[in-house]
Amino acid sequence: MQSSRIASVLARASSRAAAVARPAARRNLSSAADAAKGKVKEAAKTAEAAAEAAKGKAKEAAKTVEGAASSAAGAAKSAAGGGGGGGGGGGGVILFGLLAGAGGYYAYTQGMLDSVLGKSDKAAEASSGDAKPAGKAPVPAYAAKVATAVESLIDDDDNRGPLLVRLAWHSSGTYAKGGSPAGGSDGARMRFSPEAKDGANAGLEKARALLEPIKKAHPDISYADLYTYAGAVAIEHMGGPHIPFRFGRSDFRSEAEIASAKAAVASGRLPDAAQGASHIRDVFYRMGFNDQEIVALSGAHTLGRCHTDRSGFEGPWSFAPTTMSNQYFDLLNKEIEKPGYWTVRKWDGPKQYKDPTGELMMLPTDMALIEDDKFRPYVQLYAKDEAAFFKDFAAAFATLLHLGVDEAKLGETA
Ligand code: HEM
């Protein structure tokens, strides 16, 4: 029994290690971090192998792992900050690689090993018998693979990054605090009417179709998690901040199921770009956001473009629409510094604004952020301070993606 618990602990350790490795890979950190990432990946492999061994040769593996753990623990503690781990053979070295190579990840793993090996009575009690230790579900093992698949979709055509961000936002942005139905991303209702037919979602059928092969390859991920996680991955892959993400959403299976659960969200909850500040507040306050969060979230319009065949509007907001940056705020701020920078475009389409080059556009709702006295200071702040924008955007976007999802369903943060 001891050994099967070790096996399951090591298996969980391996999926955790992969989860630790992913954000580092996606952020393209320094070579030192890359080296650490390599070690973590190695550690994950080692843990997987050890788990297999423990499963097969129960008693022997338990002994080896226990002995190795206690002999490696001391060495690993001193090496944990440095992230190095030597080669060689034998169980002790394998575990040393696992613990030392993973750096900060060491503490987590060691805590679990301690609990299994009886080094901490409290922890051992918590995980006694065959019952799983109480707590949230770990980040699923498929998370890293799904992230890689989303990244390669974007690498094949970088216009897909912004489209996936819009999918995540429109999946979540139907939420109404205390509303009936509550709306939000849980259920992945956008696959069915009425959300599928909502004019505000025009074009997002393309995003959903793009993700279909990923769902087929990883059937355990729910559509609701996939539609939101893809947006989080896209932000980071386009150079933006890491978006804390928790898996656990589930899917409705049909329009009839949504109807019988009285969970269908009628059109009209997503914002109308032709309106002004009070409409923006109505929509985002309904979700529970404040003025600062509204401005931060709107910064996603540095990405992507409007399409005449989807919204009727036309053109990109920034000169680098596939790179996450604070350029949107910089461009809005030009109007504050030099009134008349943005002018109403003369054309047959809906009212929108153009910059002096004629290449860029702003929607009436974008301009409302500088017309409104309470929104304007945040535009100025984010124009000057990209780090502040990234930090506030990451927090608000993470909140958005989890709106309406029962806390009890959500697992650990990836
Ligand atoms: C007042 C609030 C908002 C309004 C009125 C609005 C409106 C629009 C419109 C009209 C489009 C063009 C769609 C098309 O023609 O393809 C668009 C695109 C986009 N929106 Fe928003 N949006 C708002 C808030 C947000 C938020 C909160 C986010 C994300 C956090 C977001 C992310 C995007 C992205 C990334 C695109 C580009 C999609 C692409 O390139 O295919 N928007 N938005």
Describe what you observe in this structure:
With 414 residues, the chain is mostly helical. The chain has 3 domains: 2-126, no CATH class; 143-267 and 401-409, Peroxidase, domain 1, CATH 1.10.520; 277-389, Orthogonal Bundle (Peroxidase, domain 2). Helix content is 55%, strand content 2%. It is built from 17 helices and 5 strands. It has helices spanning 2-27, 31-56, 58-79, 91-101, 105-116, 121-126, 143-156, 160-172, 204-217, 223-237, 255-260, 277-287, 291-298, 327-337, 364-371, 376-384, 386-402, and strands at residues 305-306, 315-316, 343-344, 353-354, 361-362. It has a 3-stranded antiparallel beta sheet with strand order 3-4-5. Strand 4 (353-354) and strand 5 (361-362) form a beta hairpin. Helix 1 (2-27) crosses helix 3 (58-79), helix 14 crosses helix 15 (364-371) and helix 14 packs across helix 16 (376-384). The two termini are 30 Å apart. 45% of the residues are buried. Bound molecules: protoporphyrin IX containing FE. Protoporphyrin IX containing FE (HEM) binds at residues 162-163, 165-166, 169, 203, 271, 273, 280, 297-298, 300-301, 303-307, 310-311, 313, 363, 365, 397.
